[in-house]
Amino acid sequence: MIVNKEKCRFGATDLLLIAAACLFAVGLRLWFPVCGGMAGSTVAMSCHWAGEALKAVSVLLAALCVIHLLTPDGKMKAGMDVALAGLSVLAMLLPGNVISICAGAEMACRAKTMPASIACGAALLVLALADLFYWLSRAAAQKHRRNV
């Protein structure tokens, strides 16, 4: 068995991280997809590629959150929190900054995808940093108890 059930403890932030990452991954496919493309054109618009990159990042975020949930070691969780924070920032910056999207405010990528990726990325960033702070403070408290 890979996971030791006696040592595997997870808290509210683990579940909230998974919920936010899954909402992001599913939402990109159902509720806030990028523009459909121009009719009759065989060339994909740049917002299509931003959407594809966001889908890949959202799947990575969800997978990392599941691994984070199953990991019993606090130091490993803290390391994964740093990775989650970095991927969250990437998710916020991808549409419009790293990969250009449509200029029109009424376009789906500008009206739905960009705000949703910023909101989900910010939520994941806050949760990852809160969890990181928890594990670092817990490690510092254990170190202090050993020195006393």
Question: Could you characterize what this model shows?
Answer:
The protein is built from 4 helices and no strands. It has one domain (12-23, 46-147). Helix 1 packs antiparallel against helix 2, helix 1 (12-30) packs antiparallel against helix 4 (108-147) and helix 2 (46-70) packs antiparallel against helix 3 (74-93). The chain is an all-alpha fold and 148 residues long. The longest helix is centred in the C-terminal third of the chain and has 40 residues, at 108-147. Residues 1-6 have low confidence and may be disordered. The relative contact order is 0.18.
In this structure, how is the largest beta sheet organized?
none
Number of DSSP E strands? 0
Helix and strand content put the structural class at mainly alpha
Which blocks of ≥5 consecutive residues have pLDDT under 50?
1-6
Quaternary state reads single chain
Give a brief outline of the structure:
By secondary structure, the protein is an all-alpha fold.
Give structural attributes:
148 residues; mainly alpha; elongated
Question: Layout of SSEs?
Answer:
Elements lengths: L11 H19 L15 H25 L3 H20 L14 H40 L1
